[in-house]
Each structure stands twice: as structure tokens, then as C-alpha cells.
Design a protein that fits this description.
single chain; 3-stranded antiparallel sheet; about 130 residues; alpha+beta
Length: about 130
Amino acid sequence: MTQPARNTRGRDGMVTAEAALVLPLVALFSLALIWLLSVGIEQVRVVDAARDAARAVARGDDDPAAVQAALRTAGSDAEIVVRHGAGLVTVTVSARVSAPGWLLVPLPAVSVTSRATTEVEADVRGP
């Protein structure tokens, strides 16, 4: 007994239409993940920079040396603020993250900030 022929002609076009809709969405999702990864990496860099600068001041380095340490970690375009008070030093590092140029998609710039506070060592403060 032979089976009746099925109409599969419409399914081939349906798969093509689904792929045409899904592939751009997958590409956009991938670009968004890459952008978020870039922001996350920059956030880690400013956290490390703030910690490095605060540690440098706490152990007796002057503010310009601490700022240079932070700039080495966070990048030359970062903004560093060093504040002293009550035996503590607080360093705030901010940087703007722009989308990588090779993404070819206009994504907004994001600002990331980190603050580190540490106690200045007793022998550094003086009597």
C-alpha cells in the first residue's frame, strides 16, 4: 500500500523565513554580550586602579605617584580623585567605556566608577 504524497513544498520556505528572522536577533544578542563584557572588563580595571592608588598612598607614596599607579591600571583617560581625612585615604577612579570600533553599531558610552578607602599606616602619618 502506498502512502499519499505529502505537501512539503511550504515547509522549505518556512525554515528560510525563520532563519531570516532569527539570525539577526542572534547577531544583536551577541553584540550586546560583547558590549556588556567590555563594560565588565573596564569595571574590573577601575576597581583595581582605585585599590592600587589607595594602597600606594597608605604606604607612604605621594598623591601624584598614586595617581600614576591608578592611570597605569585604569588607562590614561581615567579620572582619579584622592582625598585624605581622619587617617584614611579615599581614591575614586572613573572611566568612560565606549563601544569597540569594530562593532560597527552605535552603542552608548557608559561611565564606570570605583572607590577604595584604606587606613594610612601609622609610621607614614607621623607623630
